[in-house]
Each structure stands twice: as structure tokens, then as C-alpha cells.
Amino acid sequence: MIDLKGKRAFIAGIGDDQGFGWAIAKTLFEAGAEIIVGTWTPIYKIFTTSLERGKFDASRKINNATLLTFKKVYPLDASFDTPECVPEDIRENKRYKEFSNYTISECAALVAKEQGPIDILIHSLANGPEVKFPLLETSRNGYLAAQSASSYSFLSLLKYFAPNMPQGSSALALSYLASNKAIPGYGGGMSSAKAALESDTKTLAFEAGRKYDIRVNCLSCGPLGSRAAKAIGFIEDMINYSKANAPLQKDLMPEEVAAAAAFISSNLASAITGEVLYVDNGLNIMGLAPDSQALNNKDIATK
């Protein structure tokens, strides 16, 4: 059993009870960590109201007894580093106007003031407004938006949270195989954003390691049919492809990714940094699709 008692985790990117971020929160909480969440500002009220009304209670259960509890939920828009970065139309938008301190620097400062040091930082953020567009049809704005929300946000979170993280702390991002393999349909610059995220992981591991003694790693996760993933448009096909062609022919469970995240975030991984760890049933190792219609030898799928 991984022991995270006395540790405090900030997880950026939870907006419902699906997805890897929620599963990671449950696993870290079960291991003893205190959980603080950053939720995208436009859905903050929806998320917190759902929590208060018990909508997520079934998903909050741990071992049919304890309920996952968040110490606090903060509004966070990781597309903005400082208040000066927020455009006027966003500030005046009804989904933002009633909130303050939702940029990364403000959120980090508020967490430091109200909660104290953060031992575990989890980046569970990704967004590409043109993800359904082929890369060749992606606009400059769409491409840069994907980079901003999905990769630069990790750099920025670490930049502003690191001064409030003790020596030996852990920062972890979530990536996907499209960072280094062509995944048709995963467009809008998202594949480029994931490649940048993994490259930045290595450089940040060096810089944050030398400056703060913080470990920085990344998990490359297999496909999951979360609400956010369904925005891609063919997530079920991606899941079926993985099950048909990965060495382990089964669904990837969020708890499996969460277990890897808990290990990487714990002292058991105290000498591991700058790594991209695949948690995808082994799909990343395959150079041939056993279920391909181009194969004459159909027995190959079982060999």
C-alpha cells in the first residue's frame, strides 16, 4: 500500500467524476493525501453544485465506506498566467465575471496562502478547440490554443507552484501516444501539444530538479471513454483498436492509471524523474496491428 499520509496534492483539471483526474484524486486520497482541485472556471459552479447535491456520491465511494473529499475546489483557467493575460471579453463574460484569482499565478498564490505547501502537483488538462480538424486544416489560432491549454499550462503550473513545493515533491502530467505516433483523427494540433508536453517534461525535470529538488514525470495513458475524450468524436473506435491490438486485450481502467500516478508521486519513486511512463496495456510497443485487413495470416493475432 502506498503511503501518502501528510501529503497535500493539487490536481488541475477535474470537472466531473469521469476521467483520469478523478481516479487519481480517489487513489491519492485513499493513500492518505489531502486533495485540492483546480476546476475550469466556466464549469466551477456546475461542478461544486453537483458535489454539494450528492450527484457524485456513488463515484466518491472508496471501499464502499469512505467518500472522497476535497479540501477545497478553486476556479482555474490554465490558459492565463496572470490577470493581465485575461482579455476584456473574458473578464466580462458571465461565466467569469463573478470569479477572481482564477489565473495560474493567482490560484497558486491563493493555495499557498490558504492551504500551505503542495507535495504533489497533477496536470490533468488538455483542450484543443479544433481537435476534429486534420492537422493540415488546423488554423494558427487553433494550433496555438491547443499548445497553450495542453502543454504550456504544465510549464506555467510548475513555475508558479514550485516555490510552494517542498524538496522531494512530485509534478506529473498526462499525455497520449499521439505525441510520437500518427493517430489519424486526433487533430487540431493536439498531437503537437502532447509532443511538446513530453519534451518539456524532460527539460523541466532538469531545471526543477536543480532549482527546487522537485521530480517531474509524465504518464502516457491509453484511450478512455471519458466525457472529455468523447469530444474527439471516435473514442470508442480508439478503445476497440487498443483492445484488438495491444498485448493485453482488455479495457484500460482509470484506476490503473491512478495507481501509476500514486506510485510516481510517492517516495517509492524518489529517484525517478524526466520519464514518460506508458500505461496503455502495452499498445505503444506494437509495430503491427494484428487485426489489420492487410494480413493474410489471421492466426497472427493469437501468436
CA gyration radius, whole angstroms:
19 Å
Count up the domains. 1
CATH topology title: Rossmann fold
Globally, the shape reads: globular
Name of the CATH superfamily: NAD(P)-binding Rossmann-like Domain
Distance between the termini: 35 Å
What's the CATH first level? Alpha Beta
Strand/helix succession: EHEHHEEEHHEHEHEHHE
Percent in helix: 25-40%
Strand order of the largest sheet: 5-2-1-6-7-8-9
Mean pLDDT across residues: 94
- Please give the largest β-sheet: 7 strands, parallel
How many helices does DSSP assign? 9
Write down the oligomeric state: single chain
So, CATH architecture?
A: 3-Layer(aba) Sandwich
Short description:
This protein is α/β, with parallel strands linked by helices and 303 residues long. Helices cover 36% and strands 15% of the residues.
